[in-house]
Specification:
binds zinc ion, globular, alpha/beta, single chain, six-stranded parallel sheet, Quinone Oxidoreductase, Chain A, domain 1, about 350 residues
Length: about 350
Amino acid sequence: MREDERRMTAARYYGPGSLRIEEAPVPEPEADQVLIRLELCGICGTDVHEYVEGPIFSPTEARPDPLTGERPPVGFGHEFVGRVVARGESATRIPLGARVAVEPRRTCGECEACRGGYRNCCPSAATIGLQGGGGGIAEFIAVDERLAFDVGGIPARTAVAIEPIAVAVHAVSRAGVPIEGETALVAGAGPIGALVAWVLRAMGAAEVVVVEPGARRREAARRFGATRTIDPGGTDVRAQLTAWGIAPRLAFDCAGHAATLQTCIEAVRPRGVVVNVAISARPAEVHFLPVTTKEVTLLGTICYADDHPTAIRLLQERDFPTDDFLTAVYPMERTVEAIETLRTRAGDHMKIAIDVGGAG
Ligand SMILES: [Zn+2]
Ligand SMILES: [Zn+2]
């Protein structure tokens, strides 16, 4: 039987509230692609938004994806890990059987951003698992070999964190300063905030203060390397930092509210750097005067471009609190339940992953 005649089980997104676990053809790798037997796929906030109020990024019948040309249904899930089980004829870098994590973004390759080395800002970038190209909640996916990275001996339960760690690595790299010995503030200790704290510490930051209203998340942040935590509900952040004698050079807004952006702007020392990591579609009203008087640098960050190797290296070199990160694993047929759990009880979870069966 030919590869393209084989069938698999996959999650496919049809539109808001419509995600089906159904049969789909097993993709056939193109010449420069690898076929991956998937093991685990994490669900991220973007997936929850897409499911509940989409299509935000996904194509519609009237609006096929400009890069992939795909229409619904599209594959779902972009934080995936699995093993290479077949290769196109020119895909020879990654050995068969290797466990890989994938940078799940396809880009045009021709625009200024793509040619300039920051393809993550490509205007036509299309996320695999949202905008076509298959998805991670499936038995198989075929991806360009250049987007796949051998994770070595990192177990799947930890490797499923590589994609969001790459987001954190990129956010930290945007600050543009050596991290060794630095002092940083992280506002918000959801999955990305916790990982930004972990990456900062893994890169040698001396002090990482995490500001987070949720008690459980504050507690978890410690295990990701936070040296101190502040509950902004009961404490004035600036007064507490002053009492500790801490004036952070770097601040990362991982919550995406006007208040957290304001906290970051006010917390940094003169000529400090504020990186806005959280995605917010709403306008934020902030007092800008401290940006002026302290000459604060305010930066954006989106996804990653070749940050996966750094994420993998950090995981190989440093302890990672896998059990604090991966708080639940659901089977594929319960994907919608997993999304609903994240929607309604996000504070109880860091990351939920879908076990797509490839591990056993
Ligand atoms: Zn994501
Ligand atoms: Zn481009």
